């Protein structure tokens, strides 16, 4: 199960995801979108350094978050990729759609 913590700075919202991002986490995705809606940041940093696993539905959720960010004129950045999560994101070529930083 995926958990997330968020914190806001004057121009950014950072959401740190931990655990496993899987199909069953759609409800948590709504929570992240709601946090994004309330914060109204210029940048949205999705820190995945604490994520141990992501499945194809989780990859789709990243694309949904990118779309939700774009609709709000917010720059989404994915950071902290490592291990299997990094491999999955690289294989799916998510970096062609989403900005990825170390």
Blueprint (SSEs and pairs):
Blueprint: E1 2-8, E2 12-21, H1 26-39, E3 43-54, H2 56-71, E4 75-79, H3 83-91, E5 99-101
Parallel strand pairs: 2-3, 3-4, 4-5
Antiparallel strand pairs: 1-2
Helix pairs in contact: 1-2
How would you portray this structure in words?
The chain is α/β, with parallel strands linked by helices. The protein is 38% helix and 36% strand. It is built from 3 helices and 5 strands, in the order ββαβαβαβ. The protein has helices at residues 26-39, 56-71, 83-91, and strands at residues 2-8, 12-21, 43-54, 75-79, 99-101. A 5-stranded mixed β-sheet has the order 1-2-3-4-5. Strand 3, helix 2 (56-71) and strand 4 form a beta-alpha-beta unit. Helix 1 packs parallel to helix 2 (56-71). The longest helix is centred in the middle third of the chain and has 16 residues, at 56-71. The mean pLDDT is 96.
Average predicted local confidence, pLDDT: 96
- Percent range of helical residues: 25-40%
Based on DSSP secondary structure assignment, what is the total number of beta strands?
5
Shape label = globular
Strand order of the largest sheet: 1-2-3-4-5
Helix tally?
3
Helix-and-strand structural type: alpha/beta
Radius of gyration: 12 Å
Summarize the structure.
Helices cover 38% and strands 36% of the residues. With 102 residues, it is an alpha/beta fold. A 5-stranded mixed beta sheet has the order 1-2-3-4-5.
What would the keywords be for this entry?
3 helices; alpha/beta; single chain; 5-stranded mixed β-sheet; globular; 102 residues
């Amino acid at each position: 199960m995926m958990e997330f913590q968020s914190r806001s700075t004057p121009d950014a919202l950072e959401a740190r995801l931990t655990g496993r991002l899987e199909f069953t986490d759609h409800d948590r995705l709504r929570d992240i979108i709601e946090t994004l809606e309330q914060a109204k940041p210029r940048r949205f940093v999705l820190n995945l350094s604490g994520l141990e696993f992501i499945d194809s539905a989780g990859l789709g959720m990243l694309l949904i978050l990118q779309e939700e960010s774009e609709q709000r004129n917010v720059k989404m950045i994915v950071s902290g990729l490592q291990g299997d999560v990094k491999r999955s994101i690289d294989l799916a070529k998510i970096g062609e759609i989403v900005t990825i930083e170390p």
